[in-house]
Amino acid sequence: MITCLGDIFRPEAGVATVRLLRRLGVQVEFPEGQTCCGQPFFNSGYPKHAQDVARHTIEVFERVAVDAIVVPSGSCAAMVKVEYPALFHDDAQWHGRATELASRAHELTDFLVNVLGRDDVGASFRGKVTYHFACHLRTLGLKDEAVRLIRAIRGVEYVPLEGLEDCCGFGGSFAVRFPEISGAIVHDKALAIVRTGADAVVATDAGCLMNIAGRLHRIGSNVRALHLVEILA
Amino acid sequence: MSTTYAQHEHTDFTGASLEALETPTLQSALARLGVTLAAGNRAAWGALPGSDELRERARQIKDDALARLDELLVQTEDAVRRAGGYVHWASDVAEARRIVLEIARERGVKCIVKSKSMTTEEIHLNPALEEAGIEVVETDFGEYIAQAAKQRPSHLVAPIIHMTVEQVAEVLSNHLKQDLPPDASTLAKAARAALREKFRTADMGITGANFVVAETGTICIISNEGNARLTSTVPPIHLAIAGIEKVIPRLADLPVFLKLLARAATGQKMSVYTSLITGPRREGNRESAVGSSVENAAASGALLPTAGSLFPELDGPREFHLIFLDNGRTKILGSSYRESLYCIRCGACLNACPVYRKVGGHAYGGVYAGPIGAVLTPLYDGLPDYPLLPHASSLCGACQTACPLKIAIPHMLVHLREDLHRESEMVEAESLIYSLCKLGLRWPRLYRIGAWLTTRLFGGRAGGWFKSLPGPFAGWTHARDFPAPARRTFREQWESLNGESDRGAKP
């Protein structure tokens, strides 16, 4: 599942995901009917709309016979794994179908570390790298999977980020509704990133990356904001 | 903050939060939260073996207690009466105030000492008492300062977290007409000296209750300063106010919550003072009664003597009153916000919240601040008055992770957003946009055209970064640039990517 933000704003993360998975011996399909997971509707309080989009996503992925659905975005993965079944709690048929999809869906780092059992994916990247923990990984019960992957990359010097697990202030419509508050939160995050002296900050969510990169660019920092998979591929 | 946002409740979240962001003293005070209270909370969970099981256990107890709340409340009333106390029922804030005022008037009360209680804030007790000509003195150090500064508490357990020590010194110097230095220990000593006299002479002590135990009619109050113990024992009348959701079934359930509350609030293993109060003083011969009571207690398996065999208690107030406040809680009980009644008011969600840590407690406008406040204030005081609070969250989930009861605060905020669409007409335009987007997402061909158009129109434009966006998206570029979309979507690249695999890894 490539996600809508990934499709339009960060296709390089999708490309990197495909190449990495293939390198690890995984056969990859891309069901072209997929659009968006419906998270914006769910978060904004439109559960009926979210259900409609979820039904579409479920149908699209039911049509492909694959063992796992890999999502290179924590928030979309959380939407599918946690919220889809809950959205259909009073509809037995769709609840079952949602649960089936949820059981096959994995956030990318979860899939690499916990399903494939690979901390070391054979990547190399030259430079000092810091990492921002995307909030939805917490929803998924994930902990240090990404850090383990980063530490195993050849040539990387990993610098832990102060306030690693603090939200970057994105929050979808939150960033637009409360620009000053969101801006103040992401400013703190950008400063913490700059203080590490890293060449690049990596994260696992296109939303966080858009926010963090946008602030880094605004304050004239040359720290690159990359999807983790871009340095794993 | 020196303005009215700190003094009076309000519904101007936007104005108050903007002012908060521009107040340097507040920002430096809030910035410490992440490394003080929030870090203490995280460390405390880490250091407590089986903390997750304990938190689950607490959830079960609350779930059970709420499922038979009616029965437990009646049980509590019986137990308090047997112990010689009075129980009063207040369906709303006005009734709660009326009950307190009646009790105070009938007994000629002129001066009241109070220990920290958010429930008394909820019913706006102090202004009502003052209007009736009764002196009220807050005795928690932070509340004492807040009262002197004519401000509202800005945090559930750290009421003046928004102030610097210099500001506290200024407030206290003015209040006590002394020249006090900005030194925490000196300030605390000055306040204590002034408060001792109030404790000695007050006619009534008012407290909240952290927990109310149904089987024994015992209220439990915890504090770090000892003021709750003085408030509840020195004056001749003790009046406690508790929300009906504070009831737990058994005394044996209490340790579960005591272990969680102090860790969640301050990172302490236990608060300095834990008071268990069962009724007022009781005359009798302590020596002879103790033996028989202990036997009875042992026989019933209870830690405290059961009905009819209460220990004599020669100290404490002559009268004990317990007021149970509903104020909308019964309605919440049967709703999707039921879990909000699990809240034990520890403040852990505030300390963990990125939004609270930027805007502080006064910005939220109601009595309860932070993530749980963004749920409780609309529920207690009306969603139409607080339409922004459910949105004042990035839904990062740090609140739920920090919460000792794991309350699903983000879910409740999302649910409130849904309720908002039903109760407000303001959002019709937004609703239309969402409906149109949904249509596009249900039809892959439409989505594909939209994505293609976006990349062709804007892909790689403006050197890759837009400095300002129009209309509803203008907020984004207030503090950050917006990345231009890619020149080609992923799906356009899929075919060539697939070709790669034909030559490469695909078996």
Report on the architecture of this protein:
- The complex is a heterodimer of chains A (233) and B (507).
- In chain A, 54% of the residues lie in helices and 12% in strands.
- Chain A has 233 residues and is an alpha/beta fold.
- Chain A has two domains: 4-113; 119-232, 3-Layer(aba) Sandwich (Rossmann fold), CATH 3.40.50.
- In chain A, strands 4-3-5-6 form a four-stranded parallel beta sheet, sandwiched between helices. Chain A has a two-stranded parallel sheet with strand order 1-2.
- In chain A, helix 4 (47-62) crosses helix 6 (92-104), helix 5 runs antiparallel to helix 6 and helix 11 crosses helix 12.
- The longest helix of chain A has 18 residues, at 179-196.
- With 507 residues, chain B is α/β, with parallel strands linked by helices.
- Chain B has three domains: 1-50 and 345-426, no CATH class; 68-287 and 306-327, 3-Layer(aba) Sandwich (Rossmann fold); 431-503, no CATH class.
- Chain B is 50% helix and 10% strand.
- Chain B is built from 25 helices and twelve strands.
- Chain B has helices at 4-7, 13-21, 24-31, 37-47, 51-67, 69-82, 93-106, 118-122, 125-131, 141-148, 165-176, 184-201, 227-233, 254-266, 286-300, 329-333, 348-352, 356-359, 370-381, 398-402, 409-423, 428-442, 444-458, 476-479, 490-503; strands spanning 86-90, 111-114, 135-138, 204-207, 211-213, 218-223, 237-243, 247-248, 273-277, 319-325, 465-466, 482-483.
- In chain B, strands 1-10-7-4-2-3 form a six-stranded parallel beta sheet, sandwiched between helices. In chain B, strands 8-5-6-9 form a four-stranded mixed beta sheet. In chain B, strands 11-12 form a two-stranded antiparallel ribbon.
- In chain B, a hairpin with a 4-residue loop joins strand 5 (211-213) and strand 6.
- Chain B is globular.
- The N and C termini of chain B lie far apart (67 Å).
- At the A-B interface, helix 1, helix 2, helix 3, helix 4 and helix 8 of A face helix 2, helix 21, helix 22, helix 23 and helix 24 of B.
